[in-house]
Amino acid sequence: MSAIRELHQQLTSKARSAVEIVQAQLEQAQALEPKLHSFVSLTATKALSQAQAVDDKIAAGEAIGLLAGIPIALKDNLCTKGIRTTCSSKILENFVPPYESTVTERLDQAGAVFVGKTNLDEFAMGGSTENSAFHTTANPWDISRVPGGSSGGSAAAVAGGQAPIALGSDTGGSIRQPASFCGIVGLKPTYGLVSRFGLVAFASSLDQIGPFGRTVEDAAILLGAIAGHDPKDATSLNVKIPDYTQALQNNPGKTPLKGRTVGIIKETFGDGLDSQVGDAVSAAIEQLKALGAVVKTISCPKFSYGVSAYYIIAPCEASANLARYDGVRYGLRADESNLLSMYNKTRAEGFGDEVKRRIMIGTYALSAGYYDAFYLKAQKVRTLIKQDFDKAFETVDILVSPTVPTTAFKTGEKTDDPLSMYLLDLMTIPANMAGLPGISVPCGFDDNGLPIGLQMISNVLREDLLFEVAHAYEQSTDWHHKQPAL
Questions:
Q1: 89-103, 303-317, 343-357 — which is least confidently predicted?
Q2: CB distance 127 to 137 below 8 Å
Q3: What is the DSSP annotation of 183-196?
């Protein structure tokens, strides 16, 4: 059973109160924090007040929704009114937003309980959660290794039992990659399905907020609560939101995937793929066949250009988005005698190395004489990647690949080699470039006991298909039952 349903049953049967549940969860989070460092802030006062409101409803005989009283961890780039929101950056270390993000507002209305704000790579730039200005988060399966990034704090919190569910954001794989490294489920929705209002921007045409959970059902329930049109976000899609949990009931029986066609992305099984990851993903594909799916190999030849194009487009958008941190309006302000010196010193002291690197790449690519050669060309490549996907979805329902070419690496192992870190996004970036939904589900472990993820990608707004196939696979295996020994 999903964690959300289990806790909901405890609440509705009055076996436990919402306050009891959140107190136990806060104690667990606090106890593991010295090992994992998943959080930037634990928000006990807020959580207990939200839990009490749920208990009051139950006492008054009111019906409660599935998320009422359920503890959730929030990535610390989601604005929370009156609660510090840092983006794990010195420049926003003491920033307290005067407004609520749309997703946190919807969760609050649904009765969810906010246990804390989770650690991330600064401004969501990185794949290991080592780029945080505050501390490095550890992988619950092996605390000498990274949890992935940039949503590493959220993934580690769920995998380590510090929260049953969490929210992250995904710009080039920042939900799916840590989900793979931490052995949990992580979904990046269709671009525009979830409002970005109140998400501190990294790359506006790529960013998307999504759920983490131990099971596909938890992710489906959480997505249903945060998805939907928002007039405050100009890129928000005005579409009807289905009950995603209905997709989990399709075609019961021994062959629940009968009638579904799965495409293996040929380009993701080449050089650089760890053999144990390849074997686990191949075994997962065989399992999809056993569940009734027709499996075929599909070529997406422009897939391999995704990383190159992404690392021009994303830094260009970051350069524009991060220009607002100038020491004038909010955030860190360095003391200097004149305005220009203050700008320079504030940004030099406030931003970490990876953020500076991406701002410089983006500013250079957007500068006079280089815009056409870099940014415009990268956008054309983006269109070609989208066309590859369009062609693939003419013949298959979903596409599958490894989520990441390797399992979690040692902390500090890739710090001095940003290029090798960027290449870990090889398989996740294309979905962002095309605005498509993608999910990572656990599909095995390597010889070191580290989790391996299977990525599934579907066409625009076909999250229901992802949930259907991912749930059928998950329920036919035991991977989601395994938990780290902490």
A1: 343-357
A2: no
A3: TSEEEEPPTTTB--
Rounded-to-integer distance, Cα 382 and Cα 376, Å = 10
Catalytic site positions: 75, 150, 174
Q: How far is 211 from 345, CA to CA, in rounded Å?
A: 37
Q: Who's near 5: CB < 8 A, 6+ residues apart?
A: 66, 217, 221
- Amino acid letter, residue 183: G
CA atoms within 13 A on the CB side of 450: 23
Topology of the domain covering 3-239+248-256: Amidase signature (AS) enzymes (3.90.1300)
Residue 230 has pLDDT above 90, yes or no: yes
The number of CA neighbours under 13 Å toward the Cβ of 463 is 31
284: helix, coil or strand?
A: helix
What would you report as the CA-atom Rg of the chain, rounded to the nearest whole angstrom? 21
Pairing of strands 71-75, 165-170: parallel
Kindly report, residue by residue over 365-404, the tens digit of the pLDDT: 999 888 889 999 999 999 999 999 999 999 999 999 999 9
Task: Provide the residue ranges of all domains of the chain, joining segments of one domain with +.
Answer: 3-239+248-256
Q: What's the CA gap between 50 and 55, in Å, rounded?
A: 9
- On average, the pLDDT of the chain sits at 95
Place of tokens 């969501």: 124
CA dist 385 to 376, 389, 462, Å? 15, 7, 18
Cα–Cα dist 375/386, whole Å = 17
Helix axes 216-226, 463-475, angle to 10 degrees: 160
Reading the block at residue 187, the tokens are 């979904």
Q: Which pairing describes strands 451-458 and 438-445: parallel, antiparallel, or unpaired?
A: antiparallel
Tokens found for residue 10: 């405890």
Q: Which residues pair with 330 in a beta bridge?
A: none
